[in-house]
Structures are given as structure tokens and as C-alpha cells.
What does this fold into?
Amino acid sequence: MVGAVTGAMILVDALRDPATTAALDGDGWTTLLAIARAEQLIGTLAHRLDGLPMPEAAKRVLADARASAEQGRTAALWEAEMARRVLPDMPGVLLKGTAFVAAGLSAGVGRQIGDLDILVPRDRIAEAEAALLAAGWEWVKPDPYDDAYYRRWMHELPPLIHRDRDRMIDVHHTILPLTARVTPDAAALIADSLPLENGLRILTPNDMLCHAAAHLFADGDLAGGLRNLWDVHCLVEEFGTDGLAARATHHGLAREVARALRLSATLYSPLLRGRGPGRGAVITGEPLVAQASLPGPLPASGEREKTDALYLRRLLARDGWGCQTRRLTRLGFYLRSHWLRMPPTMLARHLWTKWRKGYLPAGG
Amino acid sequence: MRHVTSLKIGPVGFRIGCDWRAPIADLAELYRDYPKPDDGIPDFNVHLFAARPWRRIIRPSVHIAGDFVIPDAAPLPLAMGVLAAEMGMNLQMALGQRRYLLLHASAAERDGKALLMTGVSGAGKSTLAALLMARGWRLMGDEFALVDPATGLIHGFPRLISLKNEAVPVVRAALPKARFGAVMEGTPKGTLRHLVPDARAIAAMAEPAVPALILFPRFGFEAAERPVLPSETFVRLTQASTNYVALGERGFDALTDLVRTVPARAIDYPDTGTAMRQVERLWSAL
It folds into this structure.
């Protein structure tokens, strides 16, 4: 039903335009659900398709996914509350999924939430660490190299896990590693953050978009990218992009934010509804909406189309079982993610240490 | 995935994909009388694959994954492909099941009422369930019992019964005409042989039953029995459930209802004949 060429496009189509699922047969649903699980978007999909006619077996799977996301939401909010109680005087800013559900944003509807991500001022990170350790959180990384690496170079403490609740917390002091070529203004992220009723805070919508783009294009290897771009799509639909260009430029993320907007529009823009699956535009990276053209140090448009197409190739690399395909493309993005994160000699030293310990990128 | 089969066990549909032909052929034969997933849409996918392309042929070893995965799941040799598939399905249930409260227990039904038996590995869950099947009970499953939070009823999961070590000859003697899989020596649990549930267990697998008795059997002790309080049953069943925490309030409500309404007994037994007499006596005294 879905060949290697379109890959995860079946999921993108269903999220963008739920009516496309009316054409699916049993194999099509099987593929859609497997890929949605693999991309951690099944809860989101379940909400998007709620109420549409579909086979009973698909309805059951999606009802389970909605219940599971709801329980995940409860647990994530509870975890945020636990952190708030331990850090009562800290201006803790919730990030990503927990922030979306705490603020009731559309990006949080059905969203799968893993760790609790929280941003605190850099000069208070030792205080936060001591308070968490005293309240039952413990180290996860037993490896001294990893621990030292986090402390020296990363934008967050080594991950901590709570010994009773078995939940992970990532305490950030900024949104990109210190070694990255871009240095976002962490103090401004916190200074401009918005208070929630319970005393916790969230980033402004524009900073949420900058964070999503930074995470996607300046840090990671694009794993989970479809979910990230869905977040971007929801934030733009809900809040628009007023002032975003200036804010992105301020953080040094103009190029990343522009790319995030372009790609999320290419995949999820409602303007594309009714154009059906397997659209040529996606493959060529044709610029589709005006909002995607942010000012900033952008490459020439031909170059941009080519690299956008490469990103899409990576983002859609799934087979009908939800397994990752295109090993070489993924390896390329894995290496690129490290290239962006650290200078070349440091990169060489780091990868050598990791490979000697038997770590292999992008397996399975 | 080059080779594929689909099947339904109790209320749960699976699709199993595999890099090799033999495990799928064996699985399809053992599960030949089982239905296919409803609407052609499985609840879970299982992947059995070679870690590197050449490992399909050279020292083939079967890695187990699927919709839900654990890091570092140990691979099995190709000769244990059916076991790998069973472990893959168990893994999906343990990690991904959200419709039912999943109890690590065997279950058998008589007169619309279900007997649940739970305990550590080696307590005799599978053996006792198979022997009850031989005595005319309807087998509901030897590994998982599914509690429906909406109704409190038990749904069966009658997968292939997994007999280990000295249980293999005991059950073979009790069920000489039954269908068995190949003998697998040297598995992580010793010698293992699969038993296909009888026609009745398969035909009635979609029918739930009212829970009537919970047993905590222990093999290898003098015959003994004691009542188990709801509080202890509750704690032991939270430990025997893989999704109790993930279900949140629904799981808590389902489990507290179960332990409040269903009596529980711990039984020790030195041999299976004694165990059968203990079970029948407790059942008829309900």
C-alpha cells in the first residue's frame, strides 16, 4: 500500500487532512498506525481522527491511544508539580510537551510526553541540582565520561530519575549545547517567560518556536522530527508569527526557524488539504506559503530547495512497519548533528570515545 | 519484513514480520486454527530481524522488536524462531496493552466463571492450566489474563502454552493427542515445548468470564493452603501486572474491585495430582 518512496507521508496526510483516511484499507490502516506509533504521534492522530468513520479495529487502537495520552498528561502535570514543590523559589520554565499541556495549547492535545524538561537560570543550576537530589532524584548516567561531558559542554544537567516514580527530569540552563555554533539568549527566554497559575512558567509562543527549531535543526539528528514539526504547525496556527523573525534573529536562530516554518508548512499546511497523498511539491521542496519566507541569512532559493528535500527524505524515512529506512541518510544526519554541536577536533575525540565503547548510531 | 503472518489471540490482533521464512511457517502452522485480526488491522506488530544483513545467513540470530521495544533484548538462535515470536507478542502486551489491566496469570473457565493462577516463574501457572484443560476446563491462557476495567470481566489470551522442563512429559502424558511444537533445548528457561490449546479454547477465546477464584500456587512444597487477604492479593497483583501504573485510576479501580469481590488462596503442592485435587476442592467449595 505504501512504498518506500512515500514512507511516513501516509501519517502526514492523515494529520493534515483526516479525510484522507477514508480511502484506507486494512493494510493502509496497519501502516498508518505502525508509523504513528513509531513517530510518537499516535495520540495526536487519535484526536485528529476522533469521530470520523473508520473500521472498528482502528477505532479501538485509537481510543486506547487517547486514553494513554490522557493518563500521560496527568502524569506529566503531576511531575511538574513535584518539581515545583522542590524548587519553590526558582523561576522554573516548563519546556516542550509538559508546557503545552500545562498551558492547554493545541500542540499538547494527545501529545506523548516523556521526560520533564525545565529551564532554570544558569547561576542557580547547582542549587536546583542539590534540591532535586535531596528530594529523591538520582543520577542516570553511570559513565564518568558521559557525566563529565554533560557538565562541561551540555545545556542541561545529566538526566536525573526519581527513585519512586521512575520519571526523568532534564534541568536545562539554555536550549542548545554550549559547544554549538549558535548561542541563544537564555536570560531573555526566562525574563520574558509567562507565569502559569500554579507558579510555574512557560516560554512565550515565539520562544517556543525558536526552541523547537533549535532542537530540530541545530541539535538533534532529526529523530522525532515529524512530531516537532507538528508542534511548530500547531503553535503557528494558534499564535501566528508576529515578531517571530526579530526574536529568531535575536537568538541567532533565523535560519533554523525559517526552515522549521517552511518544512512544517510543506507537511501540514491546511492549504494543501484535498491535494491528496504523494504530492510532488513535497519531494521538490517547492516553497508553499508566504509565512515561510522569513528574513535572515538564507541560502539562495535553489540551494534551499535541495536541502529542504534532503530533510524531508530523512523525516519521512519509514517503511510500512514503522521501521526506519534510508540508513545512509540517517547516518549523514547523525554525523551532521554532532558537527553542529561541537568543533571538529572535539567531535573526533568524542566519537572515538563513543565508538570504542560500542555505541553505534541509528541502529535497527 | 520479507515474511509475514497475522493472527488473533483472545481480543488482541498481531502482525508478525520476519527476515526468515521458517519461523513464520512454523508459527502459521501452530496457529492455523486461530482467526485473523479484525478488519485486517492488528493491535500490535512484532519484528523479528537480523541485526546486520549478513546475519540472515551467517550465524543467524533473531532480534525481537515491534511497536514497543526494550533496549538490549537478547536475540535468540534461528532454531528458536517461534519462541522469539511468542516473546515478541508478550513484549507488545507487557509494554503496550492499555485496553485491559494485564495480569501475569494463567486462567481457566468453567460454567462461565474464571479461575486465575498467578505466581513467579516455575510456580506452575502453565502446567496447571494445561492440566485443567485436559480435565475439561476451558483454557483461557497460560501467561496473561486481561481484566476489562469497564466490566470487571476476564478476557482470555490463549496463546501457545509454554511448557518448561519437567512439565513437558507430564503434560504430554495427560494430553497424548494434543498438538505440540518442536522441542527447544537450551532456551533462557531451559527445555521448552509449545502446546496448541484445544479446539474449544480457540473457538471460545472471545468469550469473557466472571472472575471467581484467585490462586497463588507454589510447586515443590508439602501440600498446604491458606486464605489470602484482599490487601495482600492487591499488592501481589500490582506486582504481577505490567500496566497497572500506566492505566492510572482505571487500573486501580479495576484491581480494587477484583480483590474485593473475588476470594484468593495460596496453595503449595508437591506434585500435579495433588494440585488438581486442591483446585477442584476449592472450586467446588465456592
About this structure: Residues 3-96 of chain B form one domain.
